Amino acid sequence: MPLASAARLKKPPSDPLVVRGEGLFSAGAKGRKPSIDRIEEEKKREIPVRRRSSSVGIRGGEKEDVKEKKDRKEEHTHRVGDSSCDGCGKVHHGLLQLQYTQSLEQQIALLELENNYLSHHSIVRPPPPPPPSSHHPPPSTFHSHVSLPHYPSALPTRPLWTEMIPEVRESPPSTGEREGRREKSGGFNDSGRRDGEEGVRGVRSSDTELLHRLEEYSQKLLGLERKLKEKMRESRSKEESINSLQSRLREIEGNLNTKTDSDAQQKRALMEEILDLQRRLDELTPILAQKEGLIARLENEKDELAVKMRGIQSENSHLQIRLSDRGREELMRVEQEEERRRERQRMEMIMREKEGEIDAARNRDRVHIEEMTRMKREVREEEMKRSQQKTMIDKLTEENGKLVKECSRLSAEVSRLEIRAEHAERDNQLRHIEKEASRELAELKDRENTLRIELAQAQESLHAERECSTLLQNQLKEESTREGEIRDVRARMERELEALHALSKSLSAENTTLRQEKLTQEETIDSLKKKLMDKDRLAHDQTEKLRDSERKYEDAMARVEEETSAQRQRTIELEELGQKLKDLSESLPRSTHNSATTSKDVMSSRSHELHRSMELSHRWTHSRASPCSVPHPPPYQGRATIDEVIEMTRSALGTIHQ
């Protein structure tokens, strides 16, 4: 020990204790420097501490050479109990005072170093985020050494506490006074040296124990830092996985929305095609009725032309009869040629005229025949057009069948939607809306059934009309000679066609209204689907918020538990320091005992306050409250208590020196 102290005395004075202490405690401050006033104060304190430590080392080396075989405790009690050695008692009393002041100054230095360490950590450490609904202030910076993940770079290069042992130790404040007392004491110098050496060694052993304990705490802090780093890595990996899952969920929701939009667009396109086909059907039915009316009018004209042709034929027969009569007259005139030449000439002239008339009649007959052929050709063309119209009617019936199939498909889709609505009945808030939707779907089904029945009736009526048209055509072919019956049948057909035209108009109007109702029902179904999707999304968001609040609650509880454990450690350390001060005060005489008792009372009151704060924080930690209503424990004023202890020890030292 004396060799080590002498070697440390040879170090240059530019390596002060405070700089090393600040390098130890504030290394995790990431580049932050203490204030200039604080550095100057620490340097002023450093100079007497180093001088006292050097004097103690030299005197310790001199005292270790002179050892006796007797026990030091027995010699100490023998010298104190001897009433004849007044000078020895005075020297021993002065040595005890010096030892007590030395131990107090060492403890003050340790407390100041710890205070600097805690103050630097309280400056560097950012305040923890408050809980979402609590308005309590953040905890004190007394437990800021728990949040060590903020200072990972300085911890591996931290110097050990054992390296600071010779610099932390302190000697009595004035070595000149001790030398003067040693000269006055004369023969009692060796005994005073032995007692001083014993006291210094006791203080050194207590200091080494404290420093070893501080080193163990630093090792524990390193282990806690490693664990916290591992936990931080795990939390980051979990946050990354959560973010990736959330991004995948957003992509899936976007794809689902695009798919639903495309399905809705396809459905609208199909509905528009159906509406176009229905519109074309509605437009073609009156055109078909007009064509049939035109056919009926052409047939009437054909009948009128046939009547005219019959009149011409009757006139031709009359002319032929007249020609035969005139031939008889010519025979009679041949017999009377001689008598009636003039009459013959006249008759010849008449015959020529008649022949001209006959030629004209023949020409008229030829024209009539050509007109008849043309009318027959037109009739054939009309029949061909009618056959084409029949094919168009067949195509329209096929399209109607396709529309019926499409209606069945839509009914199947409606049933699937109804099943989905039944599955969505789990949510209690949407029961009323789902009941209304099911009731509307039932009404749609009933309307669909009525539409099917009406379509079946319309198909049956169309089939009946086709049969009637075929029967009428057969009757027209069979009874073409009967003009009156044909006219009656044609008039009846015209009346039926007009009725069918009116029926088609009414059916088209009903179809348009039904289509409009169907579109409105589909829009309501789409709106209900969107509401269901919004409700599901809202429920998912609420569950995510609940999980986040639970996670924050768990983090806050973990932080509070760590702070309470750190507070327990600090209270234990302060109690140990108070116990040491108590032991030292008991070893002093009655004159210094009063100041020590006052310091002891203050320390006991501070320890009781710390115990109360620890109990309150422990109760708040284990309370079963919701995450939003958990209050923070009251902040522990660690630095203020340390400053008060330092002031108390300084006042005690002042009273001792007086």
TrEMBL record:
<feature type="coiled-coil region">
    <location>
        <begin position="490"/>
        <end position="566"/>
    </location>
</feature>
<feature type="coiled-coil region">
    <location>
        <begin position="288"/>
        <end position="461"/>
    </location>
</feature>
<keyword id="KW-0175">Coiled coil</keyword>
<feature type="coiled-coil region">
    <location>
        <begin position="214"/>
        <end position="262"/>
    </location>
</feature>
<feature type="compositionally biased region" description="Pro residues">
    <location>
        <begin position="125"/>
        <end position="140"/>
    </location>
</feature>
<feature type="compositionally biased region" description="Basic and acidic residues">
    <location>
        <begin position="34"/>
        <end position="49"/>
    </location>
</feature>
<feature type="region of interest" description="Disordered">
    <location>
        <begin position="1"/>
        <end position="90"/>
    </location>
</feature>
<feature type="region of interest" description="Disordered">
    <location>
        <begin position="168"/>
        <end position="205"/>
    </location>
</feature>
<feature type="compositionally biased region" description="Basic and acidic residues">
    <location>
        <begin position="60"/>
        <end position="81"/>
    </location>
</feature>
<protein>
    <submittedName>
        <fullName>Uncharacterized protein</fullName>
    </submittedName>
</protein>
<feature type="region of interest" description="Disordered">
    <location>
        <begin position="121"/>
        <end position="151"/>
    </location>
</feature>
<feature type="compositionally biased region" description="Polar residues">
    <location>
        <begin position="588"/>
        <end position="605"/>
    </location>
</feature>
<feature type="region of interest" description="Disordered">
    <location>
        <begin position="583"/>
        <end position="606"/>
    </location>
</feature>
